[in-house]
Amino acid sequence: MTTTATQTSTQPSTRTASDPAPGAGSRTVLVINSGSSSIKYQLVDPEAGLALASGLVERIGEEEGAIIHRHGGQELRIQAPIADHGTGLAEVLRLFDEQGPDLSRANVVAVGHRVVQGGRFFSGPALIDDEVVDTITELVPLGPLHNPAHLKGIEVARELLASVPHVAVFDTAFFQDLPEAAARYALNREVADTYSIRRYGAHGTSHQYVSGEVSALLGRQDLKQVVLHLGNGASASAVVAGRAVDTSMGLTPLEGLVMGGRTGDIDPAAVFHLARVAGMGIDEIDHLFNRASGMKGLTGDNDMREVWRRIDAGQAQAREAMDIYVHRLVKYVGAYAAVMGGLDALTFTAGIGENDARLRAEVVERLGFLGARIDPGANTERSGRARVVSGSDSAVAVLVVPTNEELAIARQAVTLL
Ligand code: AMP
């Protein structure tokens, strides 16, 4: 086992407390995002909006695993094999004991679990009992990549942290009440209903959190908003007075915007064509559309910073890929403005949305017909805070709001206590 401790400037997305101990009497929530070979965690004070500690267990079940635990400006890295999720979480709890913060004194009132697919069953957070576990299990066919991994995390966490309630917070919940016209595909009704094929959306916790922050920042509850969550996965939502009325991800996160490795919208007949003409199998096409397309498939790299470097070096294909990316964004914002009958606020969030001023400027420039104007100074200012980046002459407020899914999960979890 190798252990290294370093001072770190790497911040989890929730603000890190300068005093890492939770305030007297404050409640905390341990937020867990369990993946197939990883567990991300964060200890959050939901009232103060602070991350008291965070970390990541990676490469579970592989020859060499790793744990990174961050607390009080220190980062501890451990390299050792981690047999399974139970071992990984037990190690994390040991690190809390050894490195702090002491969970027995942190007033942990709940464990919040991120769950990607809640199907039609969950329109809000759910207190986890055996019945909820069964329902998440039933939803595995709709979330085959994510739900099995969440179930592993839930199982081991309920065992190791048995004295506190566990709450599932679903990525689909915010989109549960989409108008039927937005949620139902024009697919044969019987087939669609038999196989539960409809728009579920994803990134809902982020869209809900960010649109709520925008309302708070602008001091208006009645806004017509578009939120662009642009990370390696990317999605758009249309939100009217706090309620989602459309979103770009569909049955799965494949639909919609151009993403790091996903096509986003594509004619489904491309599947028939590839099967018939190229002789590809379903799994091969799945991999092609979900992992080997998008910016990666267009340019060879899924990192937007690298795409810009190539554009600056004069690579025509990189510029063309960016044009495709921007075109799709502009198309969605325009469509959602039409669906909502107007647009008050356009917000950029996640890795690309929060950091890529050049992309924001290109998108807003193309939305000039809606009266949107960027303030070049505000847009390029580097800041981790939620802020308005449109000019005073803009008819649409353009904002950058850092997303914070862990804080949103923690806040939702405490609403059930
Ligand atoms: P996320 O999935 O939200 O963590 O976002 C990850 C993506 O954000 C990366 O793949 C990068 O493409 C992008 N990203 C991060 N920093 C920047 C930056 N400074 N400029 C442009 N893109 C960035």
TrEMBL record:
<feature type="binding site">
    <location>
        <position position="405"/>
    </location>
    <ligand>
        <name>Mg(2+)</name>
    </ligand>
</feature>
<dbReference type="GO" id="GO:0000287">
    <property type="term" value="F:magnesium ion binding"/>
</dbReference>
<dbReference type="GO" id="GO:0006085">
    <property type="term" value="P:acetyl-CoA biosynthetic process"/>
</dbReference>
<dbReference type="InterPro" id="IPR000890">
    <property type="entry name" value="Aliphatic_acid_kin_short-chain"/>
</dbReference>
<keyword id="KW-0460">Magnesium</keyword>
<dbReference type="GO" id="GO:0006083">
    <property type="term" value="P:acetate metabolic process"/>
</dbReference>
<dbReference type="InterPro" id="IPR004372">
    <property type="entry name" value="Ac/propionate_kinase"/>
</dbReference>
<dbReference type="GO" id="GO:0005524">
    <property type="term" value="F:ATP binding"/>
</dbReference>
<comment type="similarity">
    <text>Belongs to the acetokinase family.</text>
</comment>
<protein>
    <recommendedName>
        <fullName>Acetate kinase</fullName>
        <ecNumber>2.7.2.1</ecNumber>
    </recommendedName>
</protein>
<keyword id="KW-0547">Nucleotide-binding</keyword>
<dbReference type="Pfam" id="PF00871">
    <property type="entry name" value="Acetate_kinase"/>
</dbReference>
<dbReference type="GO" id="GO:0008776">
    <property type="term" value="F:acetate kinase activity"/>
</dbReference>
<feature type="binding site">
    <location>
        <position position="40"/>
    </location>
    <ligand>
        <name>ATP</name>
    </ligand>
</feature>
<feature type="binding site">
    <location>
        <position position="33"/>
    </location>
    <ligand>
        <name>Mg(2+)</name>
    </ligand>
</feature>
<feature type="binding site">
    <location>
        <begin position="351"/>
        <end position="355"/>
    </location>
    <ligand>
        <name>ATP</name>
    </ligand>
</feature>
<feature type="region of interest" description="Disordered">
    <location>
        <begin position="1"/>
        <end position="26"/>
    </location>
</feature>
<feature type="compositionally biased region" description="Low complexity">
    <location>
        <begin position="1"/>
        <end position="18"/>
    </location>
</feature>
<feature type="site" description="Transition state stabilizer">
    <location>
        <position position="262"/>
    </location>
</feature>
<keyword id="KW-0808">Transferase</keyword>
<comment type="function">
    <text>Catalyzes the formation of acetyl phosphate from acetate and ATP. Can also catalyze the reverse reaction.</text>
</comment>
<feature type="active site" description="Proton donor/acceptor">
    <location>
        <position position="171"/>
    </location>
</feature>
<comment type="subunit">
    <text>Homodimer.</text>
</comment>
<keyword id="KW-0479">Metal-binding</keyword>
<dbReference type="GO" id="GO:0005737">
    <property type="term" value="C:cytoplasm"/>
</dbReference>
<feature type="site" description="Transition state stabilizer">
    <location>
        <position position="203"/>
    </location>
</feature>
<feature type="binding site">
    <location>
        <begin position="303"/>
        <end position="305"/>
    </location>
    <ligand>
        <name>ATP</name>
    </ligand>
</feature>
<dbReference type="InterPro" id="IPR023865">
    <property type="entry name" value="Aliphatic_acid_kinase_CS"/>
</dbReference>
<comment type="pathway">
    <text>Metabolic intermediate biosynthesis; acetyl-CoA biosynthesis; acetyl-CoA from acetate: step 1/2.</text>
</comment>
<keyword id="KW-0963">Cytoplasm</keyword>
<keyword id="KW-0418">Kinase</keyword>
<feature type="binding site">
    <location>
        <begin position="229"/>
        <end position="233"/>
    </location>
    <ligand>
        <name>ATP</name>
    </ligand>
</feature>
<keyword id="KW-0067">ATP-binding</keyword>
<feature type="binding site">
    <location>
        <position position="114"/>
    </location>
    <ligand>
        <name>substrate</name>
    </ligand>
</feature>
<dbReference type="InterPro" id="IPR043129">
    <property type="entry name" value="ATPase_NBD"/>
</dbReference>
